[in-house]
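Ticket #4471: structure export looks truncated?
Reporter: QA, pipeline team
Priority: medium

Steps to reproduce: submit the single chain below to the structure queue and open the exported record.
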Amino acid sequence: MSQFPEILSDENAKEKHPDFRNALFSLESKHVSPENVDTLIKIYTTTKQIDYRNKILKLLYDQNDPKLHSFFELAFKKERYLDMKVYALRGLIQFSDEKSIEKLISTFKITLAKREQTTPYNYQEYELLKGKNALPFLVEKYNYPSIKELLQQVNEQYDRMPAAFKGHFTIDEAGNFVHLRTPVESSKMIRAFFDENKI
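Actual output as written to the record:
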């Protein structure tokens, strides 16, 4: 029996309804069969909810259905958040050769370098890129020099941030947040930094 929630396939279901949201966020990738892939792609391409798109990328990035090749290409171009681009890359790499991936990473590195200038304290994005389901996973699995260089750039930019922005959380293999400090502690450290530097 399928463990894929019926509400996600229901044409009349409202995506903002709590039952729809709960069904999507309680879904695990092991319960996604090839028949469900189209449903998730449809939700991804029609929703304006960034967290829905993020969840769907993580549900699909280990699936190897051939129709996902064009989906991950689209997702890599569409997404503005760098962690979501990496999730698209994690899916796409299964269908692409190393040269194609290298090209995508070269543009990614330029965008990443700009982030350091435009949002110098964006520690959340760095932690997501350094997450065990993101760049470290790709380095370990594929060992491409371009991915290793990208992870090195992420680590170097992260290291250049003030200490107040480091070590608040990490991401596990399943893509879940693991808090290393309480939200109160994190907020206090960051606020103190801005107060001291009159930012």
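Status: closed, not a bug. The export was complete when the record was re-opened. Leaving a note from the reviewer for reference: The two ends are 56 Å apart (CA to CA).
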